[in-house]
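> call design_seq(struct)
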């Protein structure tokens, strides 16, 4: 049995040390501090690097400052502490339940709860897990400040009034008006290709009846601002009805053998590919070539990775 604290306790110890210094600590100061709880030997440095990354992923403003030949780490209390929220015990308990029920697939939810009074609950699986995308923070801020944002998506520069953010199909989406086109758009956040640039605040107004979820009624392969492509897919007998019902087909052509050629309107080829592959050998993308190649390339990469593992 060992007296070394588990990683969660070690993270709290590390955070407490980083908050309790004006000059900052070097890495060696921290890993040799017995009250934090790093293991002995070379593994301590690797553990510190992982902990440092975890704290930053939680939103902790961990800074590293060069002082002479040393790098010193600290967390400025002015940047970390929230103003008093005066949450009651009941409100904090409700917040714990909410964050536990909807898991965030990095350390973001735990970082928020660390500031508000503790870690998330344990003992039950979340009812949904959402991935964390680094673009979430600037988009939330831009939406809150009513700032127009600029980013690249599908190889094109886009400008957007981010009216709101929401989630569906296990992913985050930003919904808003694209002022250059005067049209509403939905973008999957983890597919934004570069850093997000936000303009001046208070540049647009969101209608009082706006609901971002109302713009996500389409299938996931229809999301985004790219070109819409008509993709034809042959589906085996006995599977066509299920495919059409789940895929909201744009056109269905029945074949004499009981199969069907079904047309989907596709913006996101990867989302279409994932849907089609769910039918295994019972569905085949016919055309256009770029849609067929999206499936073939993925299957080829998969077979090569399997061979490498053998």
């Amino acid at each position: 049995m060992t007296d070394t604290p588990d990683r969660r306790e070690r993270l709290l110890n590390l955070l407490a040390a980083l908050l309790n210094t004006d000059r900052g600590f070097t890495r060696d100061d921290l890993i040799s501090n017995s009250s934090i709880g790093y293991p002995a030997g070379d593994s301590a440095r690797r553990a510190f690097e992982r902990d440092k990354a975890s704290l930053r992923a939680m939103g902790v403003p961990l800074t590293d400052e060069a002082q002479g030949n040393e790098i010193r780490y600290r967390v400025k209390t002015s940047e970390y502490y929230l103003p008093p929220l005066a949450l009651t015990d009941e409100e904090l308990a409700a917040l714990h339940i909410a964050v536990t029920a909807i898991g965030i697939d990095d350390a973001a939810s735990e970082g928020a709860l660390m500031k508000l009074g503790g870690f998330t609950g344990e003992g039950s699986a979340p009812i949904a897990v959402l991935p964390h995308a680094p673009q979430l923070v600037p988009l939330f801020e831009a939406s809150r400040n009513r700032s127009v944002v600029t980013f690249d998506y599908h190889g094109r520069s886009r400008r957007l009034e981010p009216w709101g953010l929401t989630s569906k199909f296990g992913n985050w989406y930003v919904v808003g008006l694209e002022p250059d086109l005067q049209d509403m758009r939905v973008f999957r956040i983890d597919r934004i290709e570069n850093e997000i640039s936000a303009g001046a605040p208070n540049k647009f107004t969101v209608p009082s009846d706006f609901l971002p979820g109302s713009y996500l009624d389409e299938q996931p392969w229809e999301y985004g601002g790219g070109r819409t492509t008509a993709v034809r897919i042959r589906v085996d007998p006995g599977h066509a009805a299920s495919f059409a019902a789940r895929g909201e087909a744009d056109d269905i052509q029945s074949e004499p053998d009981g199969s069907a050629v079904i047309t989907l309107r596709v913006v996101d080829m990867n989302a279409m590919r994932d849907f089609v592959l769910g039918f295994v050998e019972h569905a085949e993308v016919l055309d256009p070539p770029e849609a067929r190649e999206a499936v073939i390339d993925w299957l080829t990469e998969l077979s090569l990775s399997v061979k490498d593992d053998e």
